[in-house]
């Protein structure tokens, strides 16, 4: 009898313990679910603001981005950043209670920045939807027509900063990126830009772009990472087509210039370059002054190797048709010199209708400390 009572008591105690554990587990689960469901949510009515035409001389312009905490926990903004010093955000430092609203103010300073712009502001907070990006855009006009000076090349509605884009010296087998800057001058309609042909020494991310009204377009161009590229001053056109809203197409081109130089892989340190490399020495400025004769004018340039290894002149180039030059001159041993002879042609200058020229002759060599040299030649007629 006693055993039956003893075991019955134990069984009841066990069931009571299991029940208590289940209740505790359920309470913990409910608390966990409640904690998980309590979160802040930052909701904006609009994430883009278009200032339209912004007069440079009137100074900074400001817009407000209204938002609401649509979550069920306080919203705290930890920081707000922008992608340019010209853009200044201001935000509430106090917590925003659930259901409450507030604003983020964004100021843009147009001084010295004529032309179209797109800038972004990034908001970091405890919002469930993570980091939020806001966008401002517009077109800065100026009474001094700086925008026209910044974008002088016109192809249909597309405006570009230049007819020619020049890379810095790029080592063969490596790469470098430049951006072709332009914008759509049509204030009401988008345009399409199609790249028709690219220079043999570059690559593009894509060949078709759609640009909204008064929006900028930057086209990245990359030097081919190819060790087979010739060591020389590469100079080739990039052809493109601009299509407006009505389907009218305008064709244009720009010139891409890239000096490809040796990779200098044989030099492992600056000490190697200082103690065991060629070194080119020459005068880099020649002003012939006023010339009345139309006879060719010769310039003899002494090129001296002041280094420790043989100097090789890989390429000589000049885009000006009034300057004649050889493509190469032979190797120059350490301590020796050779003469590079240029011929300036006043007759060509006159035929072109120029009053004179001020042009560079480019020399690419195997001097690792300065593989590209420019010799300036000036003359008036």
> How many helices?
4
Largest sheet: 6 strands, mixed
CATH class of the largest domain: Mainly Beta
Shape: elongated
Quantity of strands, as a count: 27
Q: Helicity, in percent?
A: 10-25%
CATH architecture of the largest domain: Sandwich
- N-to-C CA distance: 133 Å
CATH superfamily of the largest domain: Immunoglobulins
Low-pLDDT stretches: 29-35
The tally of domains stands at 3
Q: Proportion of β residues? A: over 45%
Radius of gyration: 34 Å
- Mean pLDDT comes to 89
Look at the helices and sheets and give the structural class.
mainly beta
CATH fold call of the largest domain: Immunoglobulin-like
How would you sum up this structure, described in words?
- This protein is mainly beta and 381 residues long.
- The protein has 3 domains: 42-141, Immunoglobulin-like, CATH 2.60.40.10; 151-261, Immunoglobulin-like, CATH 2.60.40; 270-380, Immunoglobulins (Immunoglobulin-like).
- 14% of the residues lie in helices and 46% in strands.
- The strands form 6 sheets. Strands 11, 12, 14, 16, 18 and 19 form a 6-stranded mixed sheet that branches. Strands 9-10-13-17-15 form a 5-stranded antiparallel sheet, with no helix packed on it. The chain has a 4-stranded antiparallel sheet with strand order 1-3-6-5, with no helix packed on it.
- Strand 18 (232-243) and strand 19 form a beta hairpin.
């Amino acid at each position: 009898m006693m055993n039956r009572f003893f075991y019955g008591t134990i069984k009841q105690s066990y069931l009571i313990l299991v029940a208590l554990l289940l209740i505790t587990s359920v309470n913990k689960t409910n608390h966990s679910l409640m904690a998980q469901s309590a979160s802040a949510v930052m909701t904006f009515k609009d994430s883009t603001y278009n200032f339209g035409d912004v007069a440079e001389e009137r100074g900074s312009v400001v817009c407000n981005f209204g938002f609401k905490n649509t979550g069920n926990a306080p919203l705290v903004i930890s920081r707000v950043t922008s992608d340019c010093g010209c853009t200044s955000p201001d935000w509430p430092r106090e917590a925003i209670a659930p259901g409450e609203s507030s604003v983020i103010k964004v100021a843009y300073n147009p001084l010295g920045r004529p032309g179209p712009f797109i800038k972004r502001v990034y908001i970091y907070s405890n919002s469930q939807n993570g980091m939020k990006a806001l966008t401002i855009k517009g077109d800065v006009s100026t009474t001094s027509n700086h925008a026209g000076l910044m974008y002088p090349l016109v192809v249909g509605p597309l405006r570009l900063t230049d007819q020619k884009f020049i890379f810095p010296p790029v080592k063969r087998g490596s790469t470098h990126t430049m951006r072709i800057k332009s914008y759509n001058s049509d204030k009401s309609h988008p345009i399409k830009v199609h790249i028709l042909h690219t220079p043999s020494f570059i690559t593009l991310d894509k060949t078709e772009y759609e640009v909204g009204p008064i929006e900028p377009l930057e086209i990245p161009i990359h030097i081919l990472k190819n060790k087979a590229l010739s060591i020389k001053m590469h100079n080739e056109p990039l052809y493109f087509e601009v299509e407006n809203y009505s389907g009218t197409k305008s064709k244009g081109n720009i010139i891409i210039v890239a000096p490809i130089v040796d990779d200098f892989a044989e030099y492992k340190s600056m000490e190697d370059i200082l103690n065991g490399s060629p070194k080119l020495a020459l005068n880099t400025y020649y002003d012939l002054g006023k010339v009345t004769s139309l006879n060719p004018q010769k310039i003899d340039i002494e090129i001296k190797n002041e280094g420790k290894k043989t100097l090789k002149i890989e390429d000589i180039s000049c885009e000006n048709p009034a300057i004649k030059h050889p493509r190469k001159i032979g190797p120059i041993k350490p301590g020796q010199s050779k003469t590079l002879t240029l011929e300036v042609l006043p007759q060509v200058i006159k035929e072109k209708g120029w009053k004179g020229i001020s042009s560079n002759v480019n020399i690419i060599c195997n001097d690792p400390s300065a593989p590209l040299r420019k010799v300036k030649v000036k003359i008036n007629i």
